[in-house]
Amino acid sequence: MKLSKWLHMVFLSGLVLVAASARADDTDLFNQPPGAAMPAPNILFILDNSANWSANNQAWGTNGENVKQGDAELAALTTFANSITKRANIGLMMFTGSRNKGGYVRYGIRPMAPTATATSAEAANKTAFTNILAGSSVNDDSASTNSRVIPNAYYETWQYLKGATSWADMDRKADYAGNTGYTPAGQSLTTGFAYQGSVTGASYNSPLGVDCAKTYIIYIHNNKTDLTAPSPADPSAPPPNGYTSQPDLQSAWA
């Protein structure tokens, strides 16, 4: 099987798609002026970089190749970014944490476009994104399995989208100004940073505008467990009837 074919297969098979409304009232959905162009969508990937992404259970690859799940997923994301045919705002989250376990923003949502029509800023954003993916690996970017607390990652996503305070531990490769290496700042970007600071609890810069663009969250998962968030009878109740060890996911999304 050609590399491009199985990359396409793993990319599609690993997606769980959740659409979220981006600051739009219900009436806005039905009041789009005739002929008006829809704004570019926001696409936020959550990539499962916990221990299982270094496995090769599917025996992907030919001629003795030992292609890890994570390597295939990173390559698939690169292919996606380089293959878009319309403008889109693309970002990436991964898992992190030893104390506050959950997700962190590796690459904040930024505008990209097809190569032929991209502005210099859009081209720079795509180059930085693909460089970060190329510089990532299952060896250097793995998080512990215990850090893969999916409800917390969704909660962190919501905090990011609405520009609230971050909750999960700050990762060494997070998207904030002045960070080095395979980070947006390290790849010469000067705008669009996800975090306003470099420590746990830093506030987020919301990536959402006021143009009623649709926002999609795509979770690429490497293990069938932990897919369902715990559901207390009253998610707004304090412990012990509500959440006790992780953020109140359901109330946050209400």
Describe the structure.
There is one protein chain. The protein is an alpha/beta fold and 254 residues long. Helix content is 24%, strand content 15%. It has 6 helices and 5 strands, in the order αβαβαββααβα. The chain has helices at 3-13, 26-29, 69-83, 120-134, 150-161, 249-253, and strands at 15-20, 42-47, 88-96, 102-112, 215-220. Strands 1-5-2-3-4 form a 5-stranded mixed beta sheet, with helices on both faces. Helix 3 links the parallel strand 2 (42-47) and strand 3 (88-96). Helix 1 (3-13) packs across helix 3 (69-83) and helix 3 (69-83) runs antiparallel to helix 4. It is globular. The model is unreliable at 1-30, 227-245 and 249-254 (pLDDT under 50).
Q: Approximately how much beta-strand content do the residues carry?
A: 5-15%
Contiguous low-pLDDT stretches (5 residues minimum) are 1-30, 227-245, 249-254
Query: Secondary-structure element sequence?
Result: HEHEHEEHHEH
Helical run tally: 6
What kind of sheet is the major sheet? 5 strands, mixed
Distance between the amino and carboxyl termini:
45 Å
Any idea what the shape is?
A: globular
Helical content stands at 10-25%
Determine the mean pLDDT: 79
- Tell me the total number of β-strands: 5
